[in-house]
Amino acid sequence: MDIFLQQLANGLTIGSMFALVALGYTMVYGVMKLINFAHGDMVAASAFVGLTIYTQVMGQATSLFAVIAIFLLSAITMAVIGIILERVAYRPLREAPRLSAVVSALGASLVIQNGIMLIWGPRMRIFPELVPQVYWDLGGVVISLIQVIILVLSLVLMLALYLFVEKTRMGAAVRAASIDQDAARLMGINVNNIIALIFIIGSSLGAVGGLFIGLYYRGITFNMGWQYGLYAFIAAILGGIGNIPGAMLGGMLLGLFNAFIAGYVSSTWADAFTFILLILILIVRPTGILGERVAEKV
Amino acid sequence: MKELQKFPYPIFFAVMAVLPHLLNDRWQAVAITFLIFAVVALSQDIILGKSGMFNMGQALFFGMGAYTTAILNNEYGWSIVATIPLAILIPALFGILLAGPIVHLRGDYLLVVTIGFNIVFVQVLQNNLGGVTGGPNGIFGLDSLSIFGYDLMSQISVYYFAFIVLLLTLWVMHNLAGSKPGRALHYLREDQLAAESIGINTRVYKIFAFGLGAGIAGLAGTVFAVQYSAVSPEAFEFIQSVLFFSIVLVGGSSVPGILLGVFVMFVLPEIFREFATWRYFIFGFAMIAAMILRPRGIVPATFGKIPKFLIKGGSHGA
After folding, report:
1. Residue A111 lies in a domain
2. B144: closest CA among B229, B63, B72?
C-alpha cells in the first residue's frame, strides 16, 4: 500500500509536468494539424535559460521574488522563441504538403537541440536548488515541497488555460480556428494572430514544464527534449490530440501509469510498456480518450 | 533541376564499381556506410515516399535484419550467407504483422505508432530479452563473409557485397515502379478514396509495402552486421529512423534525391570532421530551408511516362 501511495504521489507530479508540455503539442496540433517536434526541445531549452537567468541575472538568489522572476523571464524568453519558430519554420509551409511541415519541425528540433549544445555544452548541468528541500513523511509516504508546488502550480495554470479557452472571446477564436481555419477567417478572426497566440501560450507553459523538470530531476542535458517531448506528445494523443482537457487528463494518466510501472514492474521497461499502452489505445480508439470521432475530410 | 531528374545511372554505377580501389581504408568504410544507408533509405521510400504512409520506425526493420544475422551466426553458428534469407524474411514478416492492425490509422497516428514500435524494439534489445541480444553491449565477434569456402575478409569485398545489395534494391524498385503493385501504391498515395473506388484493395497493398520495405531494410541490416562484425542497440535507435524519414522527404522520394540525402547526412560530416559539433545544427536549418524552397523535395519524384500536357498544375507525382 505504501508503494501504491508513494507512486501515486510521484505519478501525479510527473503527470502534471507531462500535461503542461502536452498542452503545447495539443494546441498547435488543434489549429495547425502539425506535430510540433521542436516543442520538446523548447522545453529543454527553457531549463537551460532558467539556469542562465539564475546565475547571470539573479545573482544566484533564491528568494521567492527571484524564483518568480526566473519563471516569468524564462516563460517570456521561450514565448519569443516560439513566435520566431513559427514565423521561420512553419508559416512559410502552411500551404505545403503536410509532410513538409513535419520535416521542417524535425529540422527546427535539431536546430534548437544542437543550439543548446553549442551554447551550454554537451555535458549534463545541474539545475539550481530554487526551492528548499522540505519533506513530509505521511505515514511511510514521503512528499516533497517541490512535488506539491509542481502539482498545485500546474493545476492552477491548466485551470487558467481552460477558463481562457472556454470563457473569453479570444478563447472562442482559438476554438473556432481549430475547428475550421477558413471559416474562422470568414468570421473575421485573424488566424495568424491566433496561431502566434497559441505558440506564445504553448511555449510559455512548456517553459514552466521545463523548469519543473529541472527542479524535480536536477540533471538537465541538451538532448532531454526528445525524451520528455515524446512522453508529453503521447499524453496528448492518449487524451485525444487537439483536445485541451484531453491533454491534461492524458498527462496525468501517463504519469501515473509510468510511476506504477516503475514501482511494480521495472523502470528499464517503462518506455516499452508506455508505448505498448499507446499502441493498444490507438488500435482500439484511434482518436484518444476524449477525442471526438471525426470522419476524415475528403 | 530538370537535368537532375535524368540521373546518369551508367556513370554512377561505373564510378561506384571502381571506387573502393581509389580509396584508403577509412574512406572505404565511409563508402560502405553510404551504400548501406542508401539501401535503408530506399526501403523507407517504398513505405513513406511511394505509398505515402508516415513510417518513422524504419530502423526497427534494419536492426531486426542485423540482429537476425548476428544471433544466428553467434548463437547457432550459421554462416553469414546462410542467414541472409532469414534476415530478409523475419523483418518482412514482422513488417506485415505489425502493419496489419495499424495501417488504417490516419497519418500522424501511424507515425507515432511506428515510433513506438521502434522504441519498444530498442528496449527489448537493451533488456536482453531471451538472453540472445547481448543487452546494451550488443553482439560482437561475428564471422566474416565467406562464400564457397573463400573467406572474404577484406573491406573491399564487404563493399562489393553492399554494392550488390544496392543494385538489387534499385532493380526491385525499378520493377516495382512499372508493375501493378507499384501503380496501386502510387494511386493509394495520391488519393486513398479514389484508389479504393477504382477497386484497389488499399489495405493489402499498404501491408505489402510494409513487408517489402521491411525485407529490404533487413537485408541492409545483414550488410551492416558484416561491416562492423558487431551489432548494438544504439545503431537502431529511433533517431536513426528520423534521419531516414527526413532523407526521403528532403531528397524527394526519387533515387537521385535519396542518394543525395544519404550523401549529405552521412558522408559530408566525414569530410568536414572539424564541423562535427555543428553538424546537426546546420542540418536542421538545411532541412527547414529545403522544405520552404522545395516542399516536394530537392529532386521530386516522377511517375510513369505521362506526357507533360496531361499533368495539371505540376503537382503530379508529388
Report:
1. yes
2. B229
| Number of domains observed in the structure of chain A | 1
**Of B108 and A160, the one with more pLDDT:** A160
In a domain, A12, yes or no: no
HEC readout, chain A: CHHHHHHHHHHHHHHHHHHHHHHHHHHHHHHHCCCCCCHHHHHHHHHHHHHHHHHHHCCCCCCHHHHHHHHHHHHHHHHHHHHHHHHHHHHHHCCCCHHHHHHHHHHHHHHHHHHHHHHHCCCCEECCCCCCCCEEEECCEEEEHHHHHHHHHHHHHHHHHHHHHHHCHHHHHHHHHHHCHHHHHHCCCCHHHHHHHHHHHHHHHHHHHHHHHHHHHCEECCCHHHHHHHHHHHHHHHHCCCCHHHHHHHHHHHHHHHHHHHHHHCHHHHHHHHHHHHHHHHHHCCCCCCCCCCCCCC
Exposed/middle/buried for residue A290 (C-beta within 10 Å: 0-12, 13-18, 19+): middle
Mutate to test the interface with A, among B190, B196, B241, B281 (most CBs of A within 10 A): B281
In a domain, A291, yes or no: no
Please tell me which of the candidates A108, A241, A272 has its beta carbon nearest to residue B284.
A108
A226, A117 in Cβ contact below 8 A?
Answer: no
pLDDT tens for B31-71 read 999 999 999 999 999 999 888 888 998 999 999 999 999 99
For residue A86, give the chain B residue with the closest CA: B288
Pick the more confident residue, B39 or A138. B39
Contact B117 A283 (CB under 8 A): no
Q: Cell numbers of B155, please?
A: 573491406
Residues of A in contact with B277 (CB under 8 A): 114, 117-118, 122
pLDDT on residue B134: 83
- Give mean pLDDT, residues A178-205: 91
In B156-267 the beta strands, taken as DSSP E runs, fall at 230-231
Residue A196 lies in a domain: yes
Minimal-distance CA residue of chain A relative to B129: A269
Which residues from chain A sit within 8 angstroms of residue B101, using beta carbons?
A: 283
Q: Are A144 and A135 in contact (CB under 8 A)?
A: yes
Helix (H) or strand (E) holding B297: none
Q: Quote the pLDDT of residue A274.
A: 85
At A298, is the pLDDT very low, low, confident or very high (cuts 50, 70, 90)? very low
Query: Alpha helices of B77-154 — where are they, by DSSP H?
Result: 80-99, 107-126
